[in-house]
Amino acid sequence: PGGEGAATPAPQSASGQIGVDGWAEPGGESARVAVSSPVGTDTIAFHGPRQAGIDTPAQTHAVFLAFDLRENADRDAIGRMLRLLTDDAARLTQGRATLADTEPELAAAPARLTVTFGFGPELLRRVAPDRAPAWLRPLPAFERIDELDEAYCDGDLLLQICGDDPMSIAHARRMLTKNARAFAQPRWAQTGFRAARGAHPNGTTMRNLFGQVDGTANPRPETAPSERLVWGARAQGDASEPTRLTPWIEDGTSLVLRRIRMELDTWDELDRPAKEQVIGRRLGTGAPLTGEREDDPVDLEATGPTGFPVISDVAHVRRARLDGPDAGMLRRGYNYDDAGESGLLFAAYQCDVDAQFVPVQERLAESDHLNIWTTPVGSAVFAIPPGCPEGGYIGQQLFD
Ligand code: HEM
After folding, report:
1. Which of 89, 111, 181, 230 is least surrounded by CB atoms within 10 angstroms?
2. How many CA atoms lie within 13 A of 46 on its CB side?
3. What are the boundaries of the region Disordered (predicted)?
4. pTM across the whole model
């Protein structure tokens, strides 16, 4: 791209709300807002069999919002709330103002905004107790590592809002919180970030605040491992793929969100080779210590000249890796840097928390070199329901 940015008219967006002259009309009447292409006008489809915000290439910013249901929010009320919030999310993600939007101008540039709904145990208990997945409960305590602060734990409803522009996120957060108010009150909010859109080529694996390339060994969207590990066993064309993991509901998944503090000051006392030993991968390229390139296989058997394993017994990649076709999860975390505390909003999606997440976390709690510099301070588990078609609402399956 050259110096064409500001002068270039925005293209027609999928929602049809952005005029060909590059002006948006969020209120549909007098409000005209200049929107520059393409960061502001890009949209991610809201409607579909699966919710956006999971397989979606990660946007720059995220806020995870948890709510507590009000005592009087019964099954019917929760249904009304979900209908209302679905409508808001469908509009905002497409660059359209919500009904009775008080700041419609702020909806004009969604910048790949996504809103992903998650349900905590209490919501399922009130709506469809017989449909609640067995794994939907707080994680077991990991006493050796956890220093959990209740201010970052649990919740009945989750709204995960991601986007490339903090303005559209802030607006969505406000509209959704306002419209949820009669049914639920905010419990916690956690804000995170990644590299700015365009700072690195598309598809570059993110870096965390230790500088590590983080997310290499993830299942790629729309591949057999992703279908099996994240979205569970759906009728697949290829019967040769084992499909043992069953999702709690078709096209749904789960989210484990762990707020993990990272001690940057003591981490900085290590030299680069020591830092690379902790993970088992190089800082520069993210390549395993047994390879040259980021996507080279990790060889846990390789030994060095002195006979010791190249990737140590306590290296994070060794401890985090379980064998077998049903082992793995999708990690889509965000960095945080709030009021003197830095860390990772570790977000993992998998179709079965007990089968996929807990065994890995148990192994890491038992031994992982990284534990010296990381401390879990928040923890929450949510069921992620499927997406919905136009005219439907998120969670509808549980009301039918
Ligand atoms: C891999 C960092 C916590 C599970 C990695 C890698 C890094 C990393 C740099 C190697 C590159 C990659 O494949 O992504 C961190 C940091 C953490 C953290 C900084 C805490 C602040 C966790 C937790 C879990 C976890 C809590 C799960 C309970 C994994 C898994 C892999 C991995 C499954 C891939 C292992 C493989 O198959 O190669 N992590 N991680 N990590 N991590 Fe973590």
Report:
1. 181
2. 28
3. 1-30, 285-304
4. 0.92
